[in-house]
Every structure is written in structure tokens, then in C-alpha cells.
Amino acid sequence: MAGNSPDRGVSVSTVLGRRLGGELLRMREERGLRQASAASALTASVAKVAKMERGLVPMRDPDVRALCHLYEERDVKAIDRLLELAKADRDRRKAKGWWNQYPQLKSQAEYFALEDIATGVRTWQLTFVPGLLQTSDYARALAVGNGAWEDLDEIEPFVEARMARQARLTGDRPLQLWATLHEGAVRQLVGGREVMRGQLERLLEAAELPNVRLQVVPFIAGAHPGMTSAFSVVSFAEPGALDVVQSDTVSTKVWLESETDAARHLAIFDRIARQGLAQRDSTRLIDDIRKEL
Predict the structure, then answer these.
(1) Distance CA 49, CA 234 (A)
(2) CA 190: distance to chain centroid?
(3) What is the pLDDT of residues 229-247, one digit of tens each?
(4) Which domain CATH number covers 126?
(5) Rg value, the chain, Cα
(6) Cα-to-chain-centroid distance, residue 274
(7) Is 98 domain-assigned?
(8) Same domain flag for 68 and 171
(9) Which pLDDT tens digit goes with each residue over 179-235?
(10) CB under 8 Å to 256, separation ≥6 — which residues?
(11) CA distance 211 to 120
(12) Neighbouring C-beta atoms of residue 40, cutoff 10 Å
């Protein structure tokens, strides 16, 4: 997995750092400039610029602004987004952020750091409700059923952290969430009937939020491109600008950071969504399943 713990020093590549460095690299190449020009603007070495563009070192705000000036970037929002990304990367390297209060989330800390500054997330889930929409009882039942916890006492802090994460759906800068779920995810009886009823009610409540779009792909939809894996596309600015794809495997999380990977997964997501029910029909199906329980 990309991203490493802060105790290994600052010369560590992180998802956030690579995204920032990659964006600055793209801007430099679009202007036809060499790394030596960037180094001169920063009064730094070419080696340092190379490290910046590879995400190996944190970047100061004055350096980001200087490079934006050199690359003739005039979009204030775009510059602010890069500055926000730089700050989040520095904070991540210093182990700041609510997620770092929970050692149980160590394997997911890099993703939460991204999600914390994101503007939107599109997530496709095959077998379970995404964490941003889970109830505490559902999250607890998933953790118990996973069987990976050596100390069951650690499950409660894990559940608490998952609930804290959901604050991104409300507040002054709510995350734009588009969650597309396979019908199996809303029918799988996680934690028993009462727990599952509560979870389905939570989905219905979330669907009423203006920043949440919820779809269900029914069994009758047939074959579709999302049958082999679940994934999330995290966006930080205008569509396609700083998108990062995160996919789970049995043992780790895989990061796909190129524009090509992001574009391919967004196209797959759109194809899956087109085979899903409209939100009104999706919530009707969820409510019918809830009543069956």
C-alpha cells in the first residue's frame, strides 16, 4: 500500500504527496519547462524538485505558490486546492488528523486522509454497505464477522472511528457521495434482522441528504463491469483533476493514481450506475427489503 508511517521520516512517498507532485509535474510539462527552471524559482536544487514531483518530501505553501506563479496558473480555486492538498500531506506525515487517534485504522489512515479533503467520492460496493453509510451496529457486526481481530476489545474503538468518519457527510463542506450498491449488499443479513433493519433505515435517511446519491444495481441487471471488484474514486476538485482510485484486496488496499486509471474507473462506474435503479426506485427496493425483515 502506498503511504507509510511518519516515524520513517519525511522522505517517504505518500498518496497525497504523489498527487500534489504529479499535478505540479503536469503543469510544468504543459509549459514546456525543465526541472531546472522550477529549481531556480524556488532557489533549490534540481534534486529537490525531483523529490517534490515524486511526492517524497512535504511541500511548503510558498513553494507551491511560487511554482503556480512560474507555471502561470491563475485559477484561485485550483491554487487553493493544491495548497489544501499540500497541507493535508504535511499533516498526514506528522500523523495529524482524527483517524490517527485510532490505531485500529492504521491500514485505512491514508484513505481517510484523502477523504477528509476530498470534494466527492463515487463508491461501488458488491457485498456490504460502504463505511460512510454504516450504522454502529452494522459496523460492529462486520468487524466481528471478519474474524481478523485478535483482541475483540479493539472493535469498539474501530466502530467509534467509523462513526466519526461520517461527519464528512454534513457540516459546512459536505462530501458529495455517490454510492452504488449491488442488491446483494442490501440483502446480506449482517448482524441479524434487527441490525439489518436499522442499517436499511440509515440508507433511506442518507438518501434524503442533498449531497448523497444512492443507487442499487438489482440482481436482474445481469452481467456488468463491476462484478469482479469493488472500488472508490476520490475526487479533489473539478472532475478528473486529482482523482485517486482505491480498491480493496483480501490483504491490502491498492491505490491507482494515474489519470488513465481514474478515467477508466469512472467510465466503469458510469456503466454500472446506468444498470442501477434510479434513486427513487432504489429507495423503494430498500424499503421493501426492510419491510420483509
Answers:
(1) 26
(2) 24
(3) 899 999 876 554 568 888 8
(4) 3.30.870
(5) 21
(6) 22
(7) no
(8) no
(9) 999 999 999 999 999 999 999 999 999 999 999 999 999 999 999 999 988 999 998
(10) 244, 245, 246, 247, 262, 265
(11) 9
(12) 14
Q: Which of 74, 93, 112 is the last residue of a domain?
A: 93
Domain CATH code at residue 63: 1.10.260.40
Indicate the Cα dihedral angle 94, 96, 101, 107, nearest 10°: -70
Give the integer Cα–Cα distance in Å for 72 and 64.
Answer: 12
**Domain containing residue 86:** 6-93
Cβ neighbors of 57 (< 8 A, separation 6 or more) are 10, 11, 17, 48, 51
One domain, residues 132 and 211: yes
Residue indicated by cell numbers 420483509: 292
- The one-letter code for the residue type at 12 is V
173/87 same-domain check: no
pTM of the model: 0.76
